[in-house]
Design brief:
7-stranded mixed sheet; binds coenzyme A; 26% helix; alpha+beta; single chain; Aminopeptidase; globular
Length: 177
């Protein structure tokens, strides 16, 4: 169920700590994402070792290539509530050489399928910075539509940027043709 055409999604292992630390340090990953304050490798390692089980309300999965079984990024669905049937999605590919190769699209599709089929969600939402055109394109391609805009809510490179709220509802996810 967690396997797509290019990637599979799996639970994080303690051995993913080094990669997660490296990805956190990559300015391209952090460019359009909300950054946590810097974490040391020791802190990321501790976080991975102590991470609680994935649950309905807090699901984080490592994106692994199907071909080489290489860890390349992270996806998550958080804040799921049975009352609203909604959860929030986040995604990034930490390994730069895999960006632009269809892996992100596949990972988001697999996670959305899991959200709709296994978790019985009704809708999946996310925020994307308006200038993050590659991510916006991926979400549109998968069937996400705009729901709203938070004006000048994200500060980067000395400027304020708008954030766009997008969502895809059950039955709207675009499958590969
Ligand atoms: C966003 C991200 C997950 C997408 O994954 P990816 O594997 O790079 O994306 P894909 O290769 O599946 O698809 C990229 C699509 O965007 C298009 N694209 C690339 N750069 C673009 C740009 N500057 N403007 C518009 N479209 C662009 C590509 O042509 C491709 O579309 P196509 O398949 O129709 O040709 C990845 O680039 C990433 O991790 N970025 C850094 C972190 C981030 O911004 N995360 C999202 C936060 S909301």
């Amino acid at each position: 169920m967690l396997t797509g055409e290019l990637v599979r999604l799996r639970a994080l292992e303690p051995s993913d700590a080094e990669a997660l630390y490296r990805w956190n340090e990559d300015p391209e990953v952090g460019r359009w994402m909300i950054n946590e304050y810097p974490l040391s490798l020791a802190q990321v390692t501790e976080h991975c070792a102590q991470r609680r089980h994935n649950t309905y309300g807090d699901l984080s999965l490592c994106v692994e290539t199907l071909a080489e079984r290489r860890a390349i990024g992270l996806v998550s669905l958080t804040g799921a509530e049975p009352e609203s049937g909604r959860a929030d999605l986040d995604v990034y590919l930490g390994e730069a050489e895999f960006r632009g190769g269809g892996y992100g699209t596949d990972a988001v599709r697999v996670l959305c399928r899991y959200g709709f089929d296994a978790m019985r969600l009704h809708g999946i939402s996310l925020w994307v910075v308006a200038e993050n055109t590659a991510a916006y394109h991926v979400y549109r391609k998968l069937g996400f539509v705009e729901e709203g805009r938070k004006r000048e809510s994200f500060r980067r490179d000395g400027r304020w940027h708008d954030e766009i709220l997008m969502s895809v509802l059950e039955g709207e996810l675009v499958e590969p043709s």
